[in-house]
Amino acid sequence: MKAAAFKTMGPADEVLEIMELDQPTPTHGEVLVRLNCSAVNPSDVKKRNGAFPELLKDGFIIPHSDGAGIIEEVGRGVPSSRIGERVWVYEAQYGRRFGTAAEYVTVDSNRAVWLPDNVDFEVGACMGIPAMTAHRCVFADGLVDGQTLLVTGGAGRVGHYAIQWAKYAGATVIATASNPAAEAHCYAAGADAVCSHQGEDLLSTVADLTDGNGVERIVDGEFGGNLPVLLDVAATSATIATYASMQVAEPTLPFRRMLFQDLTIRMVLVYAMPETAKNDAIEDITDLLDGKMLQHRIAYRESLENIASAHQKIEQAGFYGVVLVDID
């Protein structure tokens, strides 16, 4: 089979190469998926840049966790009725070397999720990291119906879905954006109000929509950099669900202030989510996909042969939307 892989860590255009490899065989509990497309996420770029060098000790890595395609073979313990099923794949390269940037991938059968016939493969490839992370951030701490929820970076991959999950669940959503294009993306996803990431615009918007009480929930994509202003807009007993902190990798917490606000801080990593949370996300994703109730923003596509360009697009500052690599 054809696959993209890297043998050393480094820049995309220097380390990614196309290889011819043996087609994998599914073992007990696994399925073999013939991939149509593969999604590139920031975590894939981080791995290629050296985040988990121990993965290379046994040889090359085929990147990417998310993708979509058709089950062509099943291992022992998996019903043969799944052969021919259209699926979206998640966590393909979590803790192992072989991901979805290839013509075929084997994964545990529960990591290959039924994709409704009325949904394109490219949409299925968006569901893993972005949609599941957003679902966990919005719903991990109870219902949001009737609450006001703040999504920082609402035009981002996770923010885009977080806005939609919150709106479908009955929340009022405030999103932050850095420019008019990002603001338009947030409104298109369903945000009730959009404002700047920092400063008086954010403070006044939150005050106006909450009668000065602050937001009950926050979905945040830059915890260390955003924490000071998040404390200014969080209501007493609010929950901050955060999934990244790139600007300040090891934030210092103002414990006393947070204590007196009775805040809950939830760290969200899609790979470490409990299986119950993954199953809840999958159930809701399936329902909304089947009903054509989710918006998706596929912003860039490349061929497998030009996978380096897809990785570079993810690294581009100010870029919004899902990046796909077409396999088939």
Structural class of the secondary elements? alpha/beta
Q: Output the CATH class name of the largest domain.
A: Alpha Beta
Largest sheet: 7 strands, mixed
Report Rg.
20 Å
Q: How many domains?
A: 2
CATH superfamily of the largest domain: Medium-chain alcohol dehydrogenases, catalytic domain
Give the CA-CA distance, first to last residue. 12 Å
Give the gist of this structure.
The chain has helices at about 10-15, 40-50, 120-125, 125-140, 155-170, 180-190, 200-210, 225-235, 255-260, 275-290, 305-315; strands at about 1-5, 15-20, 30-40, 65-75, 85-90, 105-110, 110-115, 150, 170-175, 195, 215-220, 235-240, 265, 300-305, 320-325.
Draw up the topology in text.
Layout: E1 2-6, H1 12-15, E2 16-20, E3 30-40, H2 42-48, E4 66-74, E5 86-89, E6 104-108, E7 112-114, H3 121-124, H4 127-139, E8 148-151, H5 157-168, E9 172-176, H6 180-189, E10 193-195, H7 199-210, E11 215-220, H8 223-233, E12 234-242, H9 255-260, E13 264-267, H10 275-290, E14 298-303, H11 307-315, E15 322-326
Parallel strand pairs: 8-9, 8-11, 9-10, 11-12, 12-13, 14-15
Antiparallel strand pairs: 1-2, 3-4, 3-6, 3-15, 4-5, 5-7
Helix pairs in contact: 4-5, 4-10
Q: What this model shows, in words?
A:
The protein is of the alpha/beta class. It has two domains: 2-126 and 296-326, Medium-chain alcohol dehydrogenases, catalytic domain (Quinone Oxidoreductase, Chain A, domain 1), CATH 3.90.180; 130-271, Alpha-Beta Complex (Quinone Oxidoreductase, Chain A, domain 1). It is 32% helix and 26% strand. The protein contains eleven helices and 15 strands. Strands 3, 4, 5, 6, 7, 14 and 15 form a seven-stranded mixed sheet that branches. Strand 8, helix 5 (157-168) and strand 9 (172-176) form a beta-alpha-beta unit. Helix 4 crosses helix 5.
